[in-house]
């Protein structure tokens, strides 16, 4: 999406109606992301909507770490991620 004239990622829950537990989980994710503050290893949370339930976040061109680790078919990216030095840097960054 576009927000304040910049490209953003919009994470939308694809459910017609949220259960009580899903609402709690969504609210918890908002609280956690909003209290973490700026960090080079985390995407920024810019905002959220309740109807429909969405998170508006910093857009990362290559996608999520999960996508890169599990689904990316770009051989150059895969070679970098499977490099032990890069893995160590990612792990230390997460910690």
Helices and strands in order:
Layout: E1 2-3, E2 6-12, H1 20-36, E3 45-50, E4 53-58, H2 65-70, H3 75-82, H4 84-94
Antiparallel strand pairs: 1-2, 2-4, 3-4
Please explain how this structure is put together.
- 44% of the residues lie in helices and 22% in strands.
- It has helices spanning 20-36, 65-70, 75-82, 84-94, and strands at residues 2-3, 6-12, 45-50, 53-58.
- It has a four-stranded antiparallel beta sheet with strand order 1-2-4-3, covered by helices on one side.
- By secondary structure, it is an alpha+beta fold.
- Would you tell me the overall average pLDDT? 84
How many E strands? 4
The fraction of residues in strands falls at 15-25%
Secondary-structure element order, as H and E? EEHEEHHH
Largest sheet, if any? 4 strands, antiparallel
Shape: elongated
Return residue spans where pLDDT drops below 50 for at least 5 consecutive residues: none
Structural class by SSE content: alpha+beta
- Please tally the helical runs, counting DSSP H or I stretches of 4 or more residues: 4
**Oligomeric state as shown:** single chain
- Helix proportion of residues, in percent? 40-55%
- Sheet with most strands: strand arrangement: 1-2-4-3
Question: What is the CA–CA distance across the termini?
Answer: 30 Å
Descriptive tags:
44% helix, four-stranded antiparallel sheet, 95 residues, alpha+beta
Structure at a glance:
Helix content is 44%, strand content 22%.
């Amino acid at each position: 999406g576009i927000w304040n004239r910049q490209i953003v990622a919009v994470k939308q829950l694809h459910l017609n109606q949220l259960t009580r537990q899903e609402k709690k989980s969504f609210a918890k994710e908002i609280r956690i992301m909003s209290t973490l503050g700026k960090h080079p290893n985390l995407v920024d949370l810019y905002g959220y909507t309740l109807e429909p339930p969405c998170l508006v976040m910093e857009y990362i061109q290559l996608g999520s770490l999960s996508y890169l680790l599990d689904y990316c078919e770009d051989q150059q990216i895969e070679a970098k991620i499977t490099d032990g030095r890069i893995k160590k840097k990612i792990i230390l960054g997460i910690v």
